[in-house]
Description:
- There is one protein chain.
- This protein has helices at about 1-10, 20-25, 30-45, 55-60, 85-100, 170-175, 210-230, 260-270; strands at about 65-70, 105-115, 115-125, 145-155, 160-170, 245, 255, 275-285, 290-300, 315-319.
- The protein is an alpha+beta fold.
Amino acid sequence: MLAILQAVNLLLPGVLVSPEKIEQCMALGQPRSKCVVRGMTTVIVDHIAWDDWDAWSEIMKEFFVDDLIYDSNWTPNMDFGNSSSVREWFDREHIPFNLAFDNTTFSLIVEVGEEMTSSYIAYGKAKWIGDIGTVPGSQFVGKEVTIWDLDFYKLDAEGTRIAYNWCLIDFVDLMRQLGYQVLPKPALPEGVFYPPQSMDGIPAPISRLADPKDAELAKDMIADLLNWDFVEGDGSSHHWSQDMTWYGGAGFGKASNKVEYEEHILKPLREGLSNRALDLDILNCEGRYCGAHGFISGDHTGVWFGEEPTNLRVNLRFG
């Protein structure tokens, strides 16, 4: 155990979290949340002690509170799902993921941080080596896979460790890549999510160059846009440019302009769900980039994703 921790310190100086190291990181222009989350993700992506609970948990206690709340996809065999401790997360997410994919390499596209919340969109590249969530990867060993990953984090009251993490892995897209079209095939292209068309860094934005005034404007704009598009509006928000790009998971696809977005995303949603409401849990912005997490609720009174109306009240988590 001691040897592993010493190796972590030698190979990844500054990764383990302490109030002093967080302050040093923030002095270089990073928001507090990024300083904590990046330390944790470095251990994950470098696969440090990944299958050794004793060693791994000793490292991770620097980053997570003991009663961490982790929310993710439901699966039939209880891989992923909801966890209420670091041990549950290790057993139900961390280990199944690493047994399904061979040495996954992650690339962050957008990473947004405020003082106490952080969010990012990333993708992993790997090869299948096993099953996950009953997706039969063991039947496709050696096949390349792209894994879409959307994460939101909240720190504890002291701002030194992660208290909450919502993670969405696009399981429907994993199935699609193996030939299982479990949702009606959309008119829009699936399986793509490109970096922003900007020179703001990858991942965007570069924290020390992000303007706080832009973040204030962006937060108001995004809050208004989400409420209009998903609750009150009858078209797309005026905040969108005509040549906007909207990326959705499998079953939605990529809209390349407002016309496609209105026709293939908003129209089916509004026809399928009535009496809609929006509940935002996190809306964080850094410069011109924002992350939003919450629930869209509505009455399922119309056909949506091929499902006939049930007239039930449904709650859809989104990010």
